[in-house]
Design a protein that fits this description.
Blueprint lengths: L5 E6 L2 E6 L10 H16 L5 E6 L3 E3 L20 H18 L4 E5 L2 E3 L1 H7 L3 E5 L3 E3 L13 H9 L1 H10 L2 E3 H7 L4 E3 L4 H13 L3 H14 L4 H16 L2 H12 L9
């Protein structure tokens, strides 16, 4: 019997989502992605959830699409599969939901993140990786293209030249190499990963979530905006945030030299 593909738990404002197909290195099948989409919708709608923490069970974060275990590609099928249809139906909506979620997502990458699993990780807002983790753009090895946003994330994170080489060579990066390239935020020792990621997620959950939502939107928009348009976006966001209770609380706390108590309002 198939295990629950995504485990979920809420504590201190953090929704922790744990990919849970360890026998397949958490490779993605339809059930896992559909479960992720349900949890992201829950995170969107539940005001008690103020941050999301994403990780994997076992020795890998996610080995990409499940090519051998009843997953998204069937190499033995008489008719070639329409991979684009499934991407439209469940995979791309998941990445869009992650980027549009008005709450921060912390990725705790606990082992191999390969193919779509690597780009799944890169869709998070702040990424911590265990020292043993690896990021592997394996698509070219089976004559496919990086998906789940990989061709967008890579050039924006590491630059055009590195993105092309990583994608075309199917390169695998250590966690330290990914950190040096600016692909992830920080590398931590394996034993400390979940403690550090949980502390970070709880810190974000107690912070000004309206501000985080505006930051996510602005940074994504900067990829295609001119400077003039980005200045206008910043103006509009600052106008909205300046009217919030959290902004008033932040200024009052600064003046009183006390910790701010943000409520996402």
């Amino acid at each position: 019997m198939e295990e629950t593909p995504v485990l979920s738990a809420v504590a201190e404002g953090v929704l922790t989502l744990t990919l849970n197909r360890p026998q397949r290195l958490n490779a993605m099948n339809n059930a896992l992605i559909e479960a992720m989409n349900r949890e992201l919708a829950r995170a969107q709608d539940d005001p008690a959830i103020r941050a999301v923490l994403l990780t994997g069970t076992g020795r890998g974060f996610c080995a990409g699409a499940d090519l051998a275990g009843g997953g998204t590609v069937d190499a033995k099928a008489a008719t070639p599969p329409d991979l684009g249809a499934n991407m439209d139906r469940i995979f791309n909506p998941m990445i869009r939901a992650m980027r549009a979620l008005p709450k921060p997502i912390v990725g705790a990458i606990n082992g191999v993140a390969a193919g779509g699993g690597a780009n799944f990780a890169l869709a998070c807002d702040v990424i911590l990786a265990a020292r043993s983790a690896r990021f592997d753009q394996a698509f070219v090895r089976i004559s496919l293209i990086p998906d789940l946003g990989g061709t967008w994330f890579l050039p924006h994170l590491v630059g055009d030249a590195r993105a092309r080489a990583l994608a075309m060579l199917g390169s695998s990066l250590s966690a330290e190499e990914a950190e040096r390239m600016g692909m992830i935020w920080q590398v931590v020792d394996d034993a400390a990963l979940m403690d550090e990621a949980t502390k970070l997620a709880r810190r974000l959950a107690s912070g000004p979530t309206l501000s985080y939502a505006a930051i996510k939107q602005a940074i994504d928009a900067a990829a295609t905006n001119t400077l003039d348009r980005q200045l206008d976006l910043e103006r509009d966001s600052q106008r909205m945030l300046g009217k919030s209770a959290d902004a008033r609380e932040g200024v009052a706390a600064f003046r009183a030299k006390r910790p701010a108590q943000f409520k996402g309002q």
